[in-house]
Amino acid sequence: MEIIQTCDEMAMACRVAARPLGLVPTMGALHAGHLSLTTQARCDNAILAVSIFVNPTQFGASEDFSSYPRSMERDLALLEEQGADLVFAPPPEEVYPAGFDTWIEPGAVAEGQEGEVRPGHFRGVATVVAKLFTIVRPDRAYFGQKDGQQVAVIRRMARDLNLGVDVVTMPTVREPDGLALSSRNAYLKPHERQAAPVIYRALCAAEQLWRSGEQDAGALRSAALAVLRSELLVESVDYVRVVDAETMVGVDAIGEQAAMVAVAARVGGVRLIDNVVLV
């Protein structure tokens, strides 16, 4: 396993690598969700490349960039076990050198949900992923469905800009009680951790109502909100949205096109997101 810290060295290593090449972009603090991506990428490709980079440009001024979980030594050990060939772990100044002033501005797919609550977030995500795609030139890139809107933004960007990358979406990996795996789960105190699966229960309530024949998006949203409001440790709900799973535009009713029910809520002081796709 080769660990690389500069853009030029990573680009060169990828240019001479066997093909196909699969990329798994991460911010580190790896868990079983990340490893489901690397496992699939390892199976699909001759070369497995993984990036570990806590991207400062996708964090707002009041968000947790400085305290975001970091565990580089452990992450590298896990990736070696996974059979990773290349690990790109650059410092921030390598990705954003002095004078950096070019950004990817995603369109309507990034406007609602996380884009509304976290202004500038998807500009940072799209820009760093575009840079990774340009440096690595992967044949395939792997992302988890938990960040459903992020996947939609990246898929749209790859298509609109003809980046030549097959964006592969993998199912959300969950704890036995339904909590979606996330690096931020480490922030949860024990009593908050016990309460956190309420987010998945809320999504399941909406999904079960849909499976029973309900197509009205407002009814699905109300069902999810009722579950969230039943838990005292849910301090706030940023949104419960029912949207087209590709465009992220809100829908009034579930039709033939796949829809996504998405939730962002704070359990104690920890902000968690999750979603289910209705297909």
UniProtKB/TrEMBL annotation:
Its EC number is 6.3.2.1. InterPro entries: Pantoate_ligase, Pantoate_ligase_C, Rossmann-like_a/b/a_fold. GO terms for molecular function: ATP binding; pantoate-beta-alanine ligase activity. Transmembrane segments: none annotated. GO terms for biological process: pantothenate biosynthetic process. Pathway: Cofactor biosynthesis; (R)-pantothenate biosynthesis; (R)-pantothenate from (R)-pantoate and beta-alanine: step 1/1. It catalyses: (R)-pantoate + beta-alanine + ATP = (R)-pantothenate + AMP + diphosphate + H(+). Keywords: ATP-binding, Ligase, Nucleotide-binding, Pantothenate biosynthesis. SUPFAM superfamilies: Nucleotidylyl transferase. GO terms for cellular component: cytosol. The keyword ATP-binding applies. Belongs to the pantothenate synthetase family. This is Pantoate--beta-alanine ligase. It comes from Geodia barretti.
